[in-house]
Amino acid sequence: MKIDFQLQMWIGCGNIKVSKILSYCNTKHLAVVPQGGNTGLVGGSVPVYDEVIISLASMDKIISFDKVNGILTCEAGCILQNLNSFLANEGFIMPLDLGAKGSCQIGGNVSTNAGGLRFIRYGSLHGNTLGLEVVLANGTVLNMLGTLRKDNTGYDLKHLFIGSEGSLGIVTKVSILTPAKLLSTNLAFLACQDYLSCQKLLLEAKKGLGEILSAFEFMDSHSIDMVLVHLEGIRNPLPLSLSKFYVLIETTGSDESHDKAKLEAFLLRSMEDGLVSDGVIAQDINQESMFWRIREGISEATVKAGPVYKYDLSLPVEKLYDIVEEMRLRLGEMAKVVGYGHLGDGNLHLNISATEYSDNIIAKIEPFVYEWTSMHRGSISAEHGLGLMKANKIHYSKTSETVQLMASIKKLLDPNCILNPYKVLPQSLLN
Ligand code: 2HG
Ligand code: ZN
Fold first, then answer.
1. Average per-residue pLDDT in the chain?
2. Is residue 351 within 6 Å of ligand 1 at its C-beta?
3. For the whole prediction, is pTM greater than 0.90?
4. Which pLDDT tens digit goes with each residue over 121-174?
Protein backbone atom coordinates (compact mmCIF):
# COMPACT_ATOMS: atom_id res chain seq x y z
CA MET A 1 0.00 0.00 0.00
CA LYS A 2 1.01 3.64 -0.41
CA ILE A 3 2.07 4.90 3.00
CA ASP A 4 0.61 8.32 3.75
CA PHE A 5 2.64 11.20 5.15
CA GLN A 6 1.46 10.86 8.74
CA LEU A 7 2.35 7.17 8.87
CA GLN A 8 5.80 7.90 7.46
CA MET A 9 6.58 10.30 10.33
CA TRP A 10 6.28 7.44 12.80
CA ILE A 11 8.51 5.05 11.00
CA GLY A 12 11.39 4.29 13.35
CA CYS A 13 11.38 2.45 16.59
CA GLY A 14 10.00 2.45 20.12
CA ASN A 15 6.73 1.54 21.74
CA ILE A 16 5.44 5.11 21.35
CA LYS A 17 5.86 4.80 17.60
CA VAL A 18 4.14 1.41 17.57
CA SER A 19 1.39 3.01 19.63
CA LYS A 20 1.00 5.94 17.23
CA ILE A 21 0.97 3.68 14.19
CA LEU A 22 -1.67 1.41 15.73
CA SER A 23 -3.85 4.24 16.93
CA TYR A 24 -3.71 5.80 13.44
CA CYS A 25 -4.39 2.49 11.66
CA ASN A 26 -7.24 1.74 14.04
CA THR A 27 -8.94 5.06 13.33
CA LYS A 28 -8.53 4.56 9.58
CA HIS A 29 -9.41 0.82 9.75
CA LEU A 30 -6.08 -0.16 8.22
CA ALA A 31 -5.02 -3.74 8.91
CA VAL A 32 -1.52 -4.44 10.26
CA VAL A 33 0.75 -7.48 10.46
CA PRO A 34 3.37 -7.49 13.23
CA GLN A 35 6.55 -9.12 12.03
CA GLY A 36 9.53 -10.48 13.96
CA GLY A 37 12.15 -12.64 12.24
CA ASN A 38 9.53 -14.03 9.85
CA THR A 39 10.70 -17.58 10.53
CA GLY A 40 7.26 -19.07 11.31
CA LEU A 41 5.93 -22.03 9.38
CA VAL A 42 2.19 -21.29 9.29
CA GLY A 43 2.14 -17.87 7.61
CA GLY A 44 1.45 -15.96 10.84
CA SER A 45 3.74 -13.03 10.00
CA VAL A 46 2.99 -12.56 6.32
CA PRO A 47 0.41 -10.12 4.97
CA VAL A 48 -2.47 -11.61 2.99
CA TYR A 49 -3.65 -8.52 1.06
CA ASP A 50 -2.51 -4.95 1.64
CA GLU A 51 -1.87 -4.94 5.39
CA VAL A 52 0.76 -2.58 6.83
CA ILE A 53 3.73 -4.62 8.08
CA ILE A 54 5.07 -3.47 11.46
CA SER A 55 8.59 -4.84 11.79
CA LEU A 56 9.97 -4.93 15.33
CA ALA A 57 13.55 -5.48 14.11
CA SER A 58 14.91 -2.11 15.22
CA MET A 59 13.59 -2.54 18.77
CA ASP A 60 16.59 -4.66 19.70
CA LYS A 61 17.87 -3.22 23.00
CA ILE A 62 18.57 -5.17 26.15
CA ILE A 63 16.98 -3.08 28.89
CA SER A 64 18.31 -4.81 32.01
CA PHE A 65 19.64 -8.04 33.38
CA ASP A 66 19.14 -8.93 37.02
CA LYS A 67 21.97 -11.38 37.68
CA VAL A 68 20.83 -12.36 41.14
CA ASN A 69 17.48 -13.62 39.90
CA GLY A 70 18.38 -14.35 36.26
CA ILE A 71 15.76 -11.98 34.88
CA LEU A 72 16.31 -10.46 31.46
CA THR A 73 14.24 -7.53 30.23
CA CYS A 74 14.57 -6.56 26.59
CA GLU A 75 12.81 -5.18 23.54
CA ALA A 76 10.82 -7.48 21.30
CA GLY A 77 13.11 -7.28 18.27
CA CYS A 78 16.13 -8.87 20.01
CA ILE A 79 17.32 -11.92 18.08
CA LEU A 80 17.24 -15.10 20.18
CA GLN A 81 20.86 -16.01 19.44
CA ASN A 82 22.07 -12.52 20.40
CA LEU A 83 20.24 -12.80 23.72
CA ASN A 84 21.82 -16.17 24.30
CA SER A 85 25.31 -14.78 23.58
CA PHE A 86 24.70 -11.83 25.89
CA LEU A 87 23.53 -14.18 28.65
CA ALA A 88 26.42 -16.62 28.13
CA ASN A 89 28.81 -13.82 29.18
CA GLU A 90 26.79 -13.39 32.35
CA GLY A 91 26.69 -17.15 33.05
CA PHE A 92 23.08 -17.72 31.96
CA ILE A 93 21.14 -19.08 28.95
CA MET A 94 17.77 -18.44 27.34
CA PRO A 95 15.16 -21.00 28.44
CA LEU A 96 14.39 -21.75 24.78
CA ASP A 97 16.44 -22.82 21.80
CA LEU A 98 15.21 -23.20 18.23
CA GLY A 99 16.75 -24.06 14.86
CA ALA A 100 15.78 -20.53 13.74
CA LYS A 101 17.70 -18.87 16.63
CA GLY A 102 19.91 -16.86 14.27
CA SER A 103 17.00 -14.82 12.94
CA CYS A 104 13.90 -15.34 15.09
CA GLN A 105 13.11 -12.56 17.57
CA ILE A 106 12.03 -12.86 21.18
CA GLY A 107 8.80 -10.91 20.54
CA GLY A 108 7.88 -13.42 17.84
CA ASN A 109 8.89 -16.32 20.09
CA VAL A 110 6.59 -15.06 22.83
CA SER A 111 3.76 -14.17 20.45
CA THR A 112 3.82 -17.70 19.03
CA ASN A 113 4.68 -19.42 22.32
CA ALA A 114 7.58 -21.11 20.53
CA GLY A 115 8.68 -24.47 21.97
CA GLY A 116 11.93 -25.91 20.65
CA LEU A 117 14.73 -28.04 22.00
CA ARG A 118 14.95 -27.06 25.68
CA PHE A 119 11.25 -27.39 26.42
CA ILE A 120 11.63 -30.77 28.11
CA ARG A 121 13.94 -29.16 30.67
CA TYR A 122 12.74 -25.57 31.09
CA GLY A 123 9.10 -25.71 30.01
CA SER A 124 7.04 -23.26 27.98
CA LEU A 125 7.13 -19.50 27.55
CA HIS A 126 3.89 -19.35 29.52
CA GLY A 127 6.02 -20.40 32.47
CA ASN A 128 9.20 -18.44 31.73
CA THR A 129 7.76 -15.10 30.68
CA LEU A 130 7.48 -12.92 33.76
CA GLY A 131 6.19 -9.77 32.14
CA LEU A 132 5.27 -8.12 28.87
CA GLU A 133 4.68 -4.70 27.43
CA VAL A 134 2.01 -4.88 24.76
CA VAL A 135 0.52 -2.24 22.49
CA LEU A 136 -3.20 -2.74 21.94
CA ALA A 137 -5.06 -2.17 18.68
CA ASN A 138 -6.18 1.33 19.76
CA GLY A 139 -2.60 2.33 20.64
CA THR A 140 -2.87 1.86 24.41
CA VAL A 141 0.47 0.77 25.84
CA LEU A 142 -0.25 -1.97 28.37
CA ASN A 143 2.61 -2.14 30.85
CA MET A 144 2.67 -5.60 32.40
CA LEU A 145 6.44 -5.71 32.48
CA GLY A 146 6.64 -7.28 35.93
CA THR A 147 9.72 -9.18 36.98
CA LEU A 148 8.24 -11.15 39.86
CA ARG A 149 8.17 -14.93 40.08
CA LYS A 150 4.96 -14.80 42.10
CA ASP A 151 2.10 -12.36 41.58
CA ASN A 152 -1.49 -13.43 42.16
CA THR A 153 -3.19 -10.08 41.83
CA GLY A 154 -6.12 -10.64 39.52
CA TYR A 155 -6.18 -12.09 36.01
CA ASP A 156 -2.75 -12.78 34.58
CA LEU A 157 -3.42 -11.00 31.31
CA LYS A 158 0.03 -11.47 29.80
CA HIS A 159 -0.95 -15.06 29.00
CA LEU A 160 -3.51 -13.77 26.49
CA PHE A 161 -0.69 -12.32 24.41
CA ILE A 162 1.63 -15.33 24.69
CA GLY A 163 0.77 -17.55 21.74
CA SER A 164 -1.97 -15.33 20.27
CA GLU A 165 0.26 -14.55 17.29
CA GLY A 166 -0.15 -10.77 17.33
CA SER A 167 -3.92 -11.00 16.94
CA LEU A 168 -4.69 -9.28 20.29
CA GLY A 169 -1.81 -6.83 20.62
CA ILE A 170 1.80 -6.26 19.63
CA VAL A 171 4.44 -7.38 22.13
CA THR A 172 7.07 -4.62 22.42
CA LYS A 173 9.01 -5.64 25.56
CA VAL A 174 9.57 -8.90 27.37
CA SER A 175 10.94 -9.91 30.74
CA ILE A 176 11.96 -13.50 30.97
CA LEU A 177 13.35 -15.89 33.53
CA THR A 178 16.69 -17.31 32.40
CA PRO A 179 18.36 -20.43 33.81
CA ALA A 180 22.00 -20.51 34.91
CA LYS A 181 24.43 -21.79 32.28
CA LEU A 182 25.62 -25.20 33.43
CA LEU A 183 29.06 -26.06 32.26
CA SER A 184 28.88 -29.77 31.62
CA THR A 185 27.02 -30.82 28.47
CA ASN A 186 27.02 -34.26 26.90
CA LEU A 187 25.32 -35.33 23.73
CA ALA A 188 24.63 -38.85 22.51
CA PHE A 189 23.46 -39.90 19.05
CA LEU A 190 21.74 -43.27 19.29
CA ALA A 191 20.13 -45.79 16.98
CA CYS A 192 16.96 -47.71 17.90
CA GLN A 193 15.56 -50.58 15.88
CA ASP A 194 11.87 -49.78 16.41
CA TYR A 195 9.61 -47.06 17.71
CA LEU A 196 8.71 -48.99 20.86
CA SER A 197 12.39 -48.89 21.86
CA CYS A 198 12.40 -45.08 21.43
CA GLN A 199 9.42 -44.82 23.78
CA LYS A 200 10.96 -47.10 26.38
CA LEU A 201 14.23 -45.20 26.10
CA LEU A 202 12.41 -41.94 26.84
CA LEU A 203 10.90 -43.39 29.98
CA GLU A 204 14.26 -44.79 31.07
CA ALA A 205 15.99 -41.47 30.30
CA LYS A 206 13.51 -39.59 32.49
CA LYS A 207 14.10 -42.04 35.32
CA GLY A 208 17.83 -42.69 34.83
CA LEU A 209 19.09 -39.26 33.80
CA GLY A 210 16.53 -37.30 35.78
CA GLU A 211 17.66 -33.79 36.59
CA ILE A 212 20.42 -33.66 33.96
CA LEU A 213 18.25 -34.60 30.95
CA SER A 214 18.04 -31.47 28.76
CA ALA A 215 16.89 -32.75 25.35
CA PHE A 216 15.32 -35.90 23.94
CA GLU A 217 14.85 -35.55 20.19
CA PHE A 218 13.94 -38.25 17.72
CA MET A 219 14.13 -38.69 13.97
CA ASP A 220 13.32 -41.56 11.63
CA SER A 221 15.79 -42.80 9.04
CA HIS A 222 13.85 -40.92 6.32
CA SER A 223 14.65 -37.67 8.12
CA ILE A 224 18.36 -38.48 8.27
CA ASP A 225 18.33 -39.41 4.57
CA MET A 226 16.81 -36.00 3.78
CA VAL A 227 19.64 -34.24 5.61
CA LEU A 228 22.36 -36.38 4.06
CA VAL A 229 21.02 -35.79 0.55
CA HIS A 230 20.08 -32.10 0.73
CA LEU A 231 22.54 -30.45 3.15
CA GLU A 232 26.23 -30.12 2.48
CA GLY A 233 29.05 -31.50 4.57
CA ILE A 234 27.05 -33.83 6.82
CA ARG A 235 27.73 -37.48 7.43
CA ASN A 236 25.83 -40.09 9.40
CA PRO A 237 27.56 -40.51 12.82
CA LEU A 238 26.43 -44.17 12.81
CA PRO A 239 26.98 -45.19 9.17
CA LEU A 240 26.81 -48.92 9.79
CA SER A 241 23.74 -49.11 12.00
CA LEU A 242 20.97 -49.14 9.31
CA SER A 243 18.40 -48.37 11.96
CA LYS A 244 14.87 -47.10 11.45
CA PHE A 245 15.08 -44.55 14.29
CA TYR A 246 17.62 -42.24 15.83
CA VAL A 247 17.52 -40.39 19.13
CA LEU A 248 19.55 -37.45 20.35
CA ILE A 249 19.93 -37.27 24.12
CA GLU A 250 21.52 -34.22 25.72
CA THR A 251 22.44 -33.90 29.37
CA THR A 252 23.34 -30.64 31.04
CA GLY A 253 24.63 -30.45 34.58
CA SER A 254 27.26 -29.01 36.82
CA ASP A 255 29.63 -31.90 37.40
CA GLU A 256 31.45 -33.09 34.27
CA SER A 257 32.75 -36.44 35.53
CA HIS A 258 29.51 -37.33 37.36
CA ASP A 259 27.31 -36.35 34.39
CA LYS A 260 29.42 -38.25 31.87
CA ALA A 261 29.58 -41.36 34.04
CA LYS A 262 25.81 -41.19 34.50
CA LEU A 263 25.17 -40.94 30.75
CA GLU A 264 27.65 -43.73 29.95
CA ALA A 265 26.09 -46.05 32.52
CA PHE A 266 22.64 -45.22 31.16
CA LEU A 267 23.74 -46.05 27.60
CA LEU A 268 25.35 -49.29 28.66
CA ARG A 269 22.12 -50.37 30.39
CA SER A 270 20.05 -49.33 27.38
CA MET A 271 22.24 -51.39 25.07
CA GLU A 272 22.12 -54.41 27.36
CA ASP A 273 18.32 -54.11 27.50
CA GLY A 274 18.21 -53.96 23.71
CA LEU A 275 16.68 -50.47 23.58
CA VAL A 276 19.67 -48.98 21.78
CA SER A 277 21.38 -50.88 18.97
CA ASP A 278 24.28 -48.51 18.39
CA GLY A 279 25.39 -45.14 19.68
CA VAL A 280 28.10 -42.56 20.03
CA ILE A 281 28.77 -39.75 22.53
CA ALA A 282 30.12 -36.53 21.02
CA GLN A 283 33.81 -36.25 21.85
CA ASP A 284 34.21 -32.56 21.23
CA ILE A 285 32.32 -29.39 20.39
CA ASN A 286 32.62 -30.02 16.63
CA GLN A 287 30.99 -33.40 16.93
CA GLU A 288 28.30 -31.88 19.14
CA SER A 289 27.51 -29.23 16.55
CA MET A 290 27.43 -31.88 13.83
CA PHE A 291 24.87 -33.97 15.78
CA TRP A 292 22.71 -30.90 16.37
CA ARG A 293 23.11 -29.82 12.75
CA ILE A 294 21.58 -33.14 11.67
CA ARG A 295 18.54 -32.71 13.91
CA GLU A 296 18.10 -28.98 13.35
CA GLY A 297 18.76 -29.34 9.61
CA ILE A 298 15.83 -31.68 8.89
CA SER A 299 13.33 -28.85 8.45
CA GLU A 300 15.68 -26.97 6.11
CA ALA A 301 16.50 -30.16 4.16
CA THR A 302 12.81 -30.88 3.51
CA VAL A 303 12.39 -27.36 2.14
CA LYS A 304 15.44 -27.78 -0.10
CA ALA A 305 14.04 -31.09 -1.34
CA GLY A 306 11.09 -29.28 -2.97
CA PRO A 307 7.37 -28.84 -2.18
CA VAL A 308 6.66 -29.87 1.41
CA TYR A 309 3.49 -30.14 3.49
CA LYS A 310 4.28 -29.51 7.16
CA TYR A 311 2.30 -30.61 10.22
CA ASP A 312 3.21 -29.99 13.84
CA LEU A 313 1.23 -32.35 16.05
CA SER A 314 0.98 -33.03 19.78
CA LEU A 315 0.07 -36.66 20.35
CA PRO A 316 0.28 -39.25 23.11
CA VAL A 317 3.82 -40.65 22.77
CA GLU A 318 2.56 -44.24 22.29
CA LYS A 319 0.54 -43.19 19.22
CA LEU A 320 2.85 -40.54 17.84
CA TYR A 321 4.52 -42.57 15.10
CA ASP A 322 1.36 -44.40 13.93
CA ILE A 323 0.24 -41.35 11.95
CA VAL A 324 3.58 -41.31 10.07
CA GLU A 325 3.14 -44.95 9.05
CA GLU A 326 -0.51 -44.49 8.12
CA MET A 327 0.38 -41.47 6.04
CA ARG A 328 3.06 -43.44 4.23
CA LEU A 329 0.49 -46.11 3.34
CA ARG A 330 -2.01 -43.51 2.15
CA LEU A 331 0.48 -41.67 -0.05
CA GLY A 332 2.52 -44.59 -1.43
CA GLU A 333 4.79 -43.38 -4.22
CA MET A 334 3.16 -39.92 -4.28
CA ALA A 335 5.41 -38.47 -1.55
CA LYS A 336 8.17 -39.10 0.99
CA VAL A 337 6.87 -39.02 4.56
CA VAL A 338 9.30 -37.93 7.24
CA GLY A 339 8.70 -38.08 11.01
CA TYR A 340 10.84 -36.38 13.67
CA GLY A 341 10.47 -34.04 16.59
CA HIS A 342 10.57 -33.38 20.29
CA LEU A 343 9.65 -36.84 21.55
CA GLY A 344 10.19 -35.81 25.15
CA ASP A 345 7.32 -33.31 24.74
CA GLY A 346 5.05 -35.59 22.66
CA ASN A 347 5.56 -33.30 19.66
CA LEU A 348 5.79 -34.83 16.17
CA HIS A 349 6.86 -32.92 13.06
CA LEU A 350 5.26 -34.70 10.14
CA ASN A 351 6.79 -33.43 6.90
CA ILE A 352 5.50 -34.69 3.57
CA SER A 353 7.87 -34.05 0.71
CA ALA A 354 6.51 -34.26 -2.84
CA THR A 355 7.42 -33.20 -6.35
CA GLU A 356 4.47 -30.79 -6.58
CA TYR A 357 1.76 -29.06 -4.56
CA SER A 358 -1.40 -30.73 -5.83
CA ASP A 359 -5.06 -31.12 -4.88
CA ASN A 360 -4.62 -34.86 -5.24
CA ILE A 361 -1.93 -35.00 -2.57
CA ILE A 362 -3.72 -32.61 -0.24
CA ALA A 363 -6.89 -34.70 -0.51
CA LYS A 364 -4.94 -37.73 0.73
CA ILE A 365 -3.52 -35.78 3.69
CA GLU A 366 -6.37 -33.52 4.84
CA PRO A 367 -8.70 -33.70 6.64
CA PHE A 368 -7.35 -37.16 7.58
CA VAL A 369 -4.36 -35.77 9.51
CA TYR A 370 -6.57 -33.43 11.54
CA GLU A 371 -9.32 -36.00 12.17
CA TRP A 372 -6.77 -38.58 13.26
CA THR A 373 -5.09 -36.12 15.63
CA SER A 374 -8.40 -35.03 17.09
CA MET A 375 -9.56 -38.65 17.52
CA HIS A 376 -6.41 -39.36 19.56
CA ARG A 377 -6.96 -36.24 21.67
CA GLY A 378 -3.93 -34.52 20.19
CA SER A 379 -3.37 -30.94 19.09
CA ILE A 380 -3.10 -29.90 15.44
CA SER A 381 -0.48 -27.34 16.42
CA ALA A 382 1.97 -28.24 19.16
CA GLU A 383 4.41 -25.33 18.89
CA HIS A 384 4.11 -23.54 15.53
CA GLY A 385 0.76 -21.82 16.07
CA LEU A 386 -2.19 -21.60 13.69
CA GLY A 387 -1.22 -18.55 11.64
CA LEU A 388 -2.95 -18.27 8.30
CA MET A 389 -2.58 -21.86 7.23
CA LYS A 390 -4.31 -23.56 10.16
CA ALA A 391 -6.72 -20.87 11.39
CA ASN A 392 -9.75 -22.68 9.97
CA LYS A 393 -8.69 -25.95 11.59
CA ILE A 394 -8.84 -24.73 15.20
CA HIS A 395 -12.06 -26.70 15.88
CA TYR A 396 -10.12 -29.97 15.58
CA SER A 397 -8.39 -29.06 18.84
CA LYS A 398 -10.77 -26.72 20.66
CA THR A 399 -14.50 -26.94 21.46
CA SER A 400 -16.87 -24.52 19.75
CA GLU A 401 -17.58 -22.78 23.10
CA THR A 402 -13.85 -22.19 23.58
CA VAL A 403 -13.40 -20.85 20.06
CA GLN A 404 -16.46 -18.58 20.52
CA LEU A 405 -14.93 -17.14 23.69
CA MET A 406 -11.66 -16.56 21.86
CA ALA A 407 -13.59 -14.67 19.14
CA SER A 408 -15.31 -12.55 21.82
CA ILE A 409 -11.94 -11.67 23.38
CA LYS A 410 -10.59 -10.76 19.93
CA LYS A 411 -13.60 -8.48 19.30
CA LEU A 412 -13.22 -6.84 22.71
CA LEU A 413 -9.53 -6.07 22.28
CA ASP A 414 -9.57 -5.37 18.56
CA PRO A 415 -13.11 -4.34 17.58
CA ASN A 416 -12.05 -3.17 14.10
CA CYS A 417 -10.12 -6.40 13.51
CA ILE A 418 -6.99 -4.59 12.36
CA LEU A 419 -4.49 -6.85 14.15
CA ASN A 420 -3.09 -9.69 12.04
CA PRO A 421 -6.37 -10.43 10.24
CA TYR A 422 -7.14 -13.91 8.80
CA LYS A 423 -4.82 -15.51 11.36
CA VAL A 424 -5.49 -17.77 14.37
CA LEU A 425 -9.33 -17.73 14.28
CA PRO A 426 -11.74 -18.56 11.44
CA GLN A 427 -12.68 -15.32 9.69
CA SER A 428 -16.37 -16.35 9.71
CA LEU A 429 -16.51 -15.83 13.51
CA LEU A 430 -15.22 -12.28 13.35
CA ASN A 431 -17.48 -10.76 10.68
C1 2HG B 1 11.98 -28.23 14.33
O2 2HG B 1 11.78 -28.73 15.45
C3 2HG B 1 11.12 -27.08 13.91
O4 2HG B 1 12.91 -28.59 13.60
C5 2HG B 1 10.65 -27.16 12.44
O6 2HG B 1 10.04 -26.90 14.76
C7 2HG B 1 9.74 -28.29 12.12
O8 2HG B 1 9.86 -27.82 9.77
C9 2HG B 1 9.24 -28.36 10.66
O10 2HG B 1 8.20 -29.01 10.45
ZN1 ZN C 1 10.10 -28.20 16.52
1. 96
2. yes
3. yes
4. 999 999 999 999 999 999 999 999 999 999 999 999 999 999 999 999 999 999
Pocket test for ligand 1, best of 96, 113, 349 (most atoms within 8 A of CB): 349
Residue 86 class from Cβ within 10 Å (0-12 exposed, 13-18 middle, 19+ buried)? Answer: middle
Query: How long is the chain?
Result: 431
The Å distance, Cα 226 to ligand 1 centre, comes to 14
Q: What is the rounded end-to-end Cα distance, in angstroms, of the chain?
A: 23
- Pocket lining: 381 vs ligand 1, CB cutoff 6 Å: no
Domains of the chain: 1-181+399-431 (3.30.465.10), 184-298 (3.30.70.2190), 306-393 (3.30.70.2740)
Distances (CA, A) of 92 to 252, 284, 425: 13, 21, 37
Of all protein residues, whose CA lies closest to atom 6 belonging to ligand 1? Answer: 116
- Kindly give the residue spans of alpha helices, DSSP state H, lying in 55-155: 80-90, 106-112, 119-122, 125-128
Q: What is the pLDDT of residue 7?
A: 62
Whose CA is closest to 40, among 124, 88, 107? 107
Model pLDDT, residue 348: 98
CA of 382 to the centre of ligand 2 (A): 9
